[in-house]
Amino acid sequence: MEYLRTLRNNNVIYSGTRNNFNQQTTSDFSIRFVFSGNERYNIGKRQLSIHTDSFLILNKGTHYTSTVESAIPVQSFGISFDDKFLQDFKNGWQLKDDTLLNLNTYPFINRYEHEFDETIYPFKGDLFFNVNHLKHHVDRGLQDELLINEYLHHCLINYFQIFNEEIFQKAQRLNFLSKSTKIEILRRLNLAKEYLYSNYNTNISLDELAEYACLSVTHLLRTFRQAFHQTPHQFLVQIRLQRAKDLLKNTDYPVNEIVNMVGFDCPSSFIRLFKDRFQTTPLKYRQSF
Amino acid sequence: MKIKYIPIFTDNVESQVKFFIDNLGFEVCDKKNLLTSRECVIMQTTSPDIFMLIAKDYGYGNRRCSIVVSTDDCLNDYHHLKLAGIQFYNEPQYTPTGLRAEFADPSGNRCLLIEERNYNDLT
């Protein structure tokens, strides 16, 4: 399904299937998803790859190149929010009673949002459901812009909830007294995280990960564990298993091939880890569909 | 054993039936004396095995009840019900089980519109 819908309030919804595509552009604040395959974004020196389990935030005015390097056609989906819509949302949402109860949270978001938001986040929770509903309706030609904007409004609520969980709550866990140190360390840890998200299927050494994150190996290991309650290696295994699960569900690749595609060396350890995490074997999981 | 009928007592059977037809997609399928000799309108819900019994409330006490209506897209139904003039107690709210919004039917029964979401499937 290929379309570019510009609403009367200048919010834009894009959907398209790409095979091999390269584009450079600037955009409004936007959220990018893929519903199959993966898409690589180059922003400056950073290379960020999004899959079906993650999404990317792009700020207004960001220059980027997007490339599709996937064996299967990539189904991209993107939402760009008009400045006024975004500002109205922020003003309205942040002044709600329930939000005011969490006052400590939101000054952080206001102040640090732009430092953090342009990265990869997990595509999960209510955002997953609402974006799928939105896509379902717009794919079928929904014309009711009030309803579309209702979905967009909720997508923003869901995004800021994820932002709060992934940034604010993680920064709180870091054992530093100074708030600015917490912020700076978390910013670097997020670099490490996006590197793992984007290069999960390669052999990543701790040295190269630490170098990308501008931290020493010891510092990276200690602070990563504090913030995310797992080691970088555990986080990497989690991404690999999630993506293997996706490939098992949506493709016909043999299990052995999937093992290599997601970066595992050995099928038997993959099967063991898969079973530990999902309480079923890869083959049984595939057969359940 | 299984639940088959859910009784709703109302001052105005006709408007209650119309409300269910227009807004929740139920259909009238019969009229019977199922409840203490009074005639009830039997309405087929969107679930094939569950029926609503709409009966006249003669004021013997507070008969108001809560109805939980399941949906697969709460925002969509919320939007269309609002356009139809239904008053909601609140905007859709996120809970650990999913998305919900609550409104009143013409007899003052509280109707909870709920989209259950299985967040565990995403991990």
Characterize the main sheet of chain B. 4 strands, mixed
Poorly predicted regions of chain B are: none
Which sequence of strands runs across the widest sheet of chain B?
A: 1-4-3-2
Mean pLDDT of chain A: 88
Strand content of chain A: 15-25%
Oligomerization = heterodimer
Helix and strand pattern of chain A: EEEEEEEEEHHHEHHHHHHHHH
pLDDT < 50 runs, ≥5 residues of chain A: none
End-to-end distance of chain A: 24 Å
Largest sheet of chain A: 6 strands, antiparallel
Give the helix level of chain B as a range of percent: 10-25%
What does the model show?
The complex is a heterodimer of chains A (289) and B (123). Chain A has a six-stranded antiparallel beta sheet. A four-stranded antiparallel beta sheet of chain A has the order 3-8-5-6. In chain A, α4 runs antiparallel to α5 (145-173), α5 crosses α6 (179-198) and α6 crosses α7 (206-213). Chain A has 289 residues and is of the alpha+beta class. Chain A has twelve helices and ten strands. Chain A has helices spanning 83-94, 97-100, 105-116, 125-139, 145-173, 179-198, 206-213, 217-228, 232-250, 255-261, 267-278, 282-287, and strands at residues 3-6, 12-18, 22-25, 29-36, 39-43, 46-50, 54-58, 64-68, 74-81, 120-122. The mean pLDDT of chain A is 88. The radius of gyration of chain B is 15 Å and the shape is globular. Chain B has 123 residues and is of the alpha/beta class. Chain B has helices at residues 13-24, 74-83, and strands spanning 5-10, 27-35, 38-44, 51-56, 66-70, 93-95, 98-104, 110-116. In chain B, a hairpin with a 2-residue loop joins β6 (93-95) and β7 (98-104). Chain B is built from two helices and eight strands; from the N terminus they run βαββββαβββ. In chain B, the strands form two sheets. Chain B has a four-stranded mixed beta sheet with strand order 1-4-3-2, with helices on one face. In chain B, strands 5-8-7-6 form a four-stranded mixed beta sheet, covered by helices on one side. Chains A and B meet through α4 and α5 of A and α2 of B.
